[in-house]
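User: Hello, can you help with two protein structures?

Assistant: Certainly.
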Amino acid sequence: MNTVSRLAILMLLFFSPWASFAGDSNGPPKSGDVFPDISLPLPEAAEHRAYLGLPEDAGSFKTECIKTRILIIEIFSMYCPHCQREAPEVNTFYESIVNNEALRDRIKMIGIGAGNSEYEVEVYRTTYNVAFPLFPDPDYKIHKRLGEVRTPYFFGIAVNARGPDQVFYSELGGLDGAERFLEHIRESAKPFLED
């Protein structure tokens, strides 16, 4: 392999969407932290607006507007091989929530594509049959607010319509099985799920 090829590979790895970038010295929000204030565009799909409980006329919304007690956020990238490999398990996790009458209105899920355009997010959604709402973050604006995490990264937040959302889960990597992850989320979120 010549020097130019090696340099090209190094640059590809350094500038890839799933690479960890230097930036926020505090890192991602941890359990017990306030979740950063982020804005997301209103989903075009009516079923996604209904799932999140959002009004039809909102141009954008914040996480505290979602009608739920718990919000699971996956930070992914279309180009991340770990995200691609984990997608079926993430889908199973989502389905186990929506098929559970006791959880479907209390736990919701969204994905944010770090560095991904609307087109790239749509390719990911279609390729991996993702049913939950996915949002583009083409300029890494949200990604920077969340500590420039590597992908896939999962946040669990307690949604509070009257104040800031609180992080109760913040981890890099796969789910280690959809069923096990759901039990872990239920246990970690117990204080926020109880009436």
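That covers the first. Now for the second protein you mentioned:
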Amino acid sequence: MDEDLILIRRMKNGDDGAIEEFVRKYYPRILGYCRVHIDDSGYAEDMTQETFARFFRTLPNYQHYGKAANYLYVIAGNCCRDHCRRHRELPLEELSEQSVEGPEQRIEVRMALAKLPGELWETAVLYFIQEVKQKEIARILGISLPLVKYRVRRARELLAAELGKEEPE
């Protein structure tokens, strides 16, 4: 049986240990996702907490169809978009030390990502930064797998052109 389904059932039955386990399992991933969308780490933490608050508010009606992480990503994306609209911030990411070497290169990548159209940006963040598989991205964004593949390829092309590198084959 699916580990998430067992946790969900335990949480619905009021098991505080299951809630703690669930949060420990997904909090780092959702926080990383929020940090990609919001340049301020304090606000990113707030949006992560809001994501879990919204999830637990809807838990009694939650229907488990796959991975709980996908549902959390959808909620987190909505929280971050709402935050950015309220604060009129350009959603940029804090890239991890492993993704890009040096502060100058991180700034270049941030600027290149910011120039991507919204639908390509969201896909690029999930794929290149969060390292989510394309099949999962399709579920998270509610789009087809071929569309995800197109967006990843197109984002790669635009980023390569923006960063002045030859497109990888």
